Structures are given as structure tokens and as C-alpha cells.
Amino acid sequence: MRQIIYTSITTAESGRASDDLPAILRIASARNGLDGITGLLYTEQDGYLQTIEGPEESVADLLASLRSDPRHRDIKILLDRTVEEREFGDWMMVHRERRETVDDFDRRLRRLLMGVSPETAEYFRALVDA
Ligand SMILES: Cc1cc2nc3c(=O)[nH]c(=O)nc-3n(C[C@H](O)[C@H](O)[C@H](O)COP(=O)(O)O)c2cc1C
Question: In terms of residue numbers, what domain contains 13?
């Protein structure tokens, strides 16, 4: 199983990464199920942070799609490794609701990251604590 964590920046005119979420979620929920991809997509202001994991070929294909997707730029791969087991059983989206306090969001994210390896959790924690 291959696992990748990357960050990128939205190209949406509004500067909000969340503006493209409905379209991304639609395609991801269809394609990821077929390709055995699971992971976590997090948005904050203009940034994306995403983990994808699954069979080598599926991850390579998705990465190629992501690289040519004009909705974001400056893809930086933070981690690219082989894992024995999935860390994310499902495909998840984490997005801080407008009315949610930072503390509530923090708590929700930490709950989601329970059971995830420290290396992976670190990338998400670093953002939350920033
Ligand atoms: C930040 C971001 C995250 C994305 N995550 C996924 C994903 O998890 N699964 C997926 O199928 N497509 C995802 N997409 C969409 C893909 O880039 C691509 O548009 C889609 O998979 C269709 O691929 P194709 O144009 O090569 O057919 C994401 C796009 C962006 C900008």
C-alpha cells in the first residue's frame, strides 16, 4: 500500500480552497471507491493538505490526475512511503465549519487522527496548532 501526504494551494479566484470542495467531493467519492483509495482531505484558507493511500497503481494514477488539475498549484509531497495497513479506513474530509471554534475543531480532528501513526498525525497537528 502506498501512502502520500502533500500540500497545495488553491487557484480559486476567491482564494478559498473550500470553494472547490463540492466538485472535488463528488468526483472523489465516485473514483476513490472504485480505485481503493482512502485518505483525508483538509482545507484551511487557501491551502489543501491531503493524504491518499491505496494500491500503488491507483495512487500513481490519482497523483497524475492531481498534478494536472488546474484547481490547485504548488503541489509539495511531504511524505511518500509504503505502509502495511491503511491508516484511514474511509475517505474523509475535514473542514472547519464557520461557526466552529478552533478548540472544537481541534478536538474533532484529534479524534479523527486517533489510531493514525505519529508520523502522519504530525503533519495534521502541525497545521492545527499553527
Ligand atoms: C485538492 C484536490 C484533491 C482531490 N482529491 C481527489 C481524490 O481524493 N480523489 C479523486 O478521484 N479526485 C480527487 N481530486 C480531483 C482530481 O484531481 C481529478 O480531477 C479527478 O480525479 C479526475 O481525474 P481525471 O481528470 O484524470 O480523469 C482532487 C482535486 C483537488 C484539487
Answer: 2-129
| 105: amino acid identity, one letter | F
All three cell numbers of 117, joined, read 501513526
Given pLDDT bands bounded at 50, 70 and 90, which one contains residue 12?
very high
Extract the C-alpha cell encoding 108. 474533532
Backbone CA torsion sign across 125, 126, 129, 130: negative
- Domain CATH for 121: 3.30.70.100
- Binned at pLDDT 50, 70 and 90, residue 128 comes out as low
Residue 96: pLDDT band (50, 70, 90) is low
Q: How many domains does the chain have?
A: 1
> For a substitution probing ligand 1, which of 21, 32, 65, 72 has the most ligand atoms within 8 Å of its CB?
65
Q: Is the pLDDT of residue 92 over 60?
A: yes
* N residues, the chain: 130
Ligand 1 near 24 CB (within 6 A): yes
